[in-house]
Amino acid sequence: MANVKDNIESLRSKIRKHEYQYYVLGEPLIADFEFDQLYKSLEKLEQENPNLITPDSPTQRIGSDLTKEFRTIRHKVSMLSLSNTYNEDELIAFDNRIKENVDSPEEVSYVVELKIDGVSASLIYEDGKLKTAVTRGDGVSGEEITNNVKTIKSVPLSISENKWKAIDLYQFEVRGEIFMEIDAFQEYNSEREKRGEKTFANPRNSTAGTIKMQDPKIVAERPLDIFTYYLIADSRNIQTHSESLELLAELGFKVNKNYKLCNNINEVVDYCNFWENERVKLPYETDGVVIKVNSLDQQSELGTIAKSPRWAVAYKFKPKQATTRIKDIRWQVGRTGAVTPVADLEPVLLAGSTISHATLHNMDEIRRKDIRLNDKVIIEKGGDVIPKIVKVIDEERNEFSQKLQPPKVCPVCSSKLFQPDGEVAIYCQNPNCRAQIKGNLEHFSSRGAMDIEGMGKAIIDQFVELELLKNIADIYNLKTKRDELISIERLGEKSVDNLLNAIEESKNKSFEKVLFALGIRYIGAGVAQKLSDSFKNIDEIINADEEKVTSIHDIGQSVFYSLRQYFSIDQNLDLIKKLKLAGLNFESSKVEKSGSKLDGLKFVITGTLPTLSREEAKSLIESNGGSVVTTVSKNTNLLLAGEKAGSKLSKAEKLGINIIDESGLFKMIQND
User: 627 or 279: whose pLDDT is higher?
Assistant: First the structure.
């Protein structure tokens, strides 16, 4: 048996080496036939000795079990989106902000990487083995896709033990972008077309649809690949982002080689300009460049805001453009009541997909660009995603061009429209407007909110028109109308029961999900998380004053005013009561802080501490009731200073702020 086990391990080692050479490095050492023979030999030995099969064996990439449910997993560190820049001036402004907020601005350097147009994922490894793979989701939590990610042959199922043990990587997280190469995507699309199957619009859409399929065998047939770009680990051997990229490559992960360590913002600008022109030669789609502060200590020092890290930014390439004609201009009503114009266009191919609609934003935008019905226009994808009209081709204008007038009443419910002072948008104020009801229901049921599978746009439209749904609370009364639902055309008993089960399951969603699902203006997933971490329940939020709300890190006045306006409406308070009665969770599940020694105190951390990393110090302060901010101001209570403390120490001394060291922090926490 020992000899068989050794043979199996030897074959696995050889196969892993050749998979790495082929799928990661693109430098195969043997022919496909030889590789297949190795693989078949391993399969045969494992079939004869099933007790020796391990989850990280190359034969276990493709599981046989269907994934019936993609369970939600909370990220240990939020997967934030990036702020965007579009020109050299904005990059320089980013550089200035970085240098204003770090202790050693002269030591700032940047790593510049291509921004791959794919689907972000997080891979968790324990003891050198892939344990879990999770989508980005809403940034706070995502859905488990482990079985599907294991089919991607450039993802290592296990890491060489001597490599991960050498730097204490017993548990670590790798983040990357799953994508399809352009040629592989086109070949795959051609095969689908030959089989009479629906083709995909572009590689990103195909990737997003594939990664959430239930059957890993089908996923394995599709040409998914991955570039890894970030390593999260407690190891103190890693000091910079560039070191972490090198380490990822050493561990066997696929890292895009087109990155550069830049010593100043001028080098960053040059690199962005280079790829602006050269990206057409790449075998995969990219829509920009990502710029990250190289020092991990400086990343920690800069911290994050609600939606994005302060230490990174995306530079977006100039969008691709096309020419078409405006066939019609119509007005649509969103869930907030905002009435916005949309242009219906003669269909045109742009950046890999057919465009037939474009946003016009508001009347100010229409007047500024002098957009008229029947105009010939240049369109582009803003950020390579949302189509918009760039300009009118004046010389193509003719007698059929017609100026647009804003509506005076809602195009859906005919209510009189209202334009608030200081705003360009016009609003329908009728809360019973069907368009608003549908928008609220779609948001509430969406994957990032209550995630009610089966409650899609078509079903919502149908249920609202049949007056089965008049508000989001009515969703939880549908179970009393089962027989009526079954009688609706195209809705059978099974689909209705699946929907009702999904509605019942949504009652288990956490407080922050429910808070986000309410659709309150400015309350995105990140803000909802911060509010649920800071208040015990919805009643505390309803009764909170401005000081209490804005004292939360990165929460400003706009959030407070939005909350106050929402909760001042009786209809909204009544809605919350109904949702409570339905069994939704309006209580925070956040663990009580271990102490309140630092309750209400705002800290700034600067310099290198003797034993604690910045993240460890931040966690210690927050677990004892304090908060950590990144900028020294008159509202800062204490500065926690270590070695090489720079400008923040000087500013704190000028403002008369109390300064403590690490031992002083320990004394504050331990003091009775």
Answer: 279
CA distance 672 to 651: 31
CATH 1.10.287.610: which residues of the chain? Answer: 2-60
CA within 13 Å, CB half, 318: 12
Specify the pLDDT at position 594: 46
Provide the total of helices (H) and of strands (E) in the chain, helices listed first.
25, 22
Q: Is the model's pLDDT at 67 over the cut of 80?
A: no
Q: What is the CATH number of domain 73-316?
A: 3.30.470.30
**For 602-670, CATH number?**
3.40.50.10190
Q: How many CB atoms lie within 10 A of CB 496?
A: 21
In words, the CATH class of domain 2-60 is mainly alpha
Residue 437 token pair: 């009801």
Q: Tell me the H-state helices in 67-213.
A: 88-100, 146-149, 161-166, 182-194, 203-211
* Number of residues assigned to the chain: 672
Model pTM above 0.90: no
Interatomic CA distance for residues 517 and 438, integer angstroms = 14
Q: Which pair of structure tokens corresponds to residue 21?
A: 């050479």
Q: Of the residues 76, 115, 320, 369, which is catalytic? A: 115
* The two three-digit tokens of residue 240, written as one number: 């910079």
Per-residue model confidence as pLDDT tens digits over 9-37? 788 778 777 777 766 776 777 777 777 78
pLDDT tens for residues 105-117?
A: 888 999 999 999 8
Query: Are 317 and 384 contacting, i.e. CB atoms less than 8 angstroms apart?
Result: yes
pLDDT band at 590 (very low <50, low <70, confident <90, very high): low
53 φ/ψ sector (left φ>0, alpha ψ -120 to 50, else beta): beta
Residue 115 among the catalytic residues: yes
